[in-house]
Design a protein that fits this description.
By secondary structure, the chain is an alpha/beta fold. 51% of the residues lie in helices and 11% in strands.
Length: 300
């Protein structure tokens, strides 16, 4: 292991300020940023995923931002392979790199590696996606409970993406999702430091609500309108997009769509907080403090 090479992972719930802090740290360390936000990969999702602004991207070199299309067949295994190759190459130039993003599974694929799952035929992906849209999350829950009760006991039962992924593996392989899950960590050629950003829950929720309002002012409704014809793609099953699609289909009112975006984003933040609690060796940073103080703490 190249212990003099360090990957600093900045984690935390959506809206807490990961982007701003990571840019300041990257500038201080004169290095680059690897994004592991799985929805910021897609170039068509410009507003609803809150990617770094053009000005922010100009300040520090970012990787894995808008490098894919929603029509591309892309998954966490492909991301892991591409990201690790890039990171190893960048470590030839830098001693430190910044990893930032809210997609815990994608972050873990870099930090620890992920299990080797079979490739999923597009027909099975489409079938499960259609069943989910027709029958809701209860369909996924019932199928997983029946086909893989061990995984069902452990999984966040309200995380539709994880349920869909597990069911895809089960349906395509004929084996349980648990069968493919292994208890080993892949060896990496770098050391890692995990930083978890934290703040008062009410402050976080206020930030989330304001950010949703800002995205709507920036044109989120129009962005979704032009993408609604691709609603069957799993990439459009994303907070901010699925609610407006329901509005366009007259399933909910405009006011309900906006409130549901806020509520679903807050619920997503809760799930991120729960996921991040598993990092027992992480350093927590209170975002209520001065940002310069936080940078100094991280650099220590």
């Amino acid at each position: 292991m190249m212990t003099n090479k360090k990957l600093i992972y900045i984690a935390g719930p959506t809206g807490i300020g990961k982007t701003e802090l990571s840019i300041k740290i990257a500038k201080k360390l004169k290095t680059e940023i690897i994004s592991c936000d799985s929805r910021q990969f897609y170039k068509e999702l410009k507003i609803g995923t809150s990617p770094p602004s053009i000005e922010q991207l100009d300040k520090v070199k970012h990787h894995f931002i808008h490098h894919k299309s929603i029509h591309d067949d892309y998954n966490v295994r492909k991301f892991e392979n591409e990201a690790i190759n890039l990171i190893n190459n960048l470590f030839l130039k830098y001693d430190n790199l910044i990893l930032v993003g809210g997609s815990g599974l994608y972050a873990d694929s870099i930090l620890y590696g992920i299990d080797e799952f079979p490739d999923i035929p597009i027909s099975i992906k489409n079938m499960i996606s259609e069943k989910y849209k027709e029958n809701g999350i209860e369909y996924l829950q019932n199928k997983i409970k029946k086909l893989d009760p061990e995984f069902y006991r452990k999984v966040d039962k309200n995380n539709s993406r994880r349920l869909i992924r597990a069911l895809e593996v089960i349906e395509s392989s004929g084996k349980s999702f648990t069968f493919f899950r292994k208890a080993y960590v892949k060896e990496r050629t770098f050391s890692k430091k995990i930083i978890i950003l934290d703040c008062d829950r009410e402050i976080l929720y206020s930030k989330i609500n304001k950010r949703v309002e800002m995205m709507i002012n920036d044109g989120l409704e129009n962005e979704v309108f032009y993408l609604k014809k691709f609603k069957n793609l799993n990439t459009l099953n994303t907070v901010g997009y699925k609610e407006f699609i329901n509005y366009f289909e007259n399933k909910i009112s405009y006011k309900e769509a906006v409130e549901k975006i806020k509520q679903n984003t807050r619920n997503y933040a809760k799930r991120q907080i729960t996921w991040n609690n598993k990092y027992s060796d992480a350093k927590k940073i209170d975002m209520n403090e001065n940002i310069i103080t936080n940078i100094d703490k991280i650099l220590q």
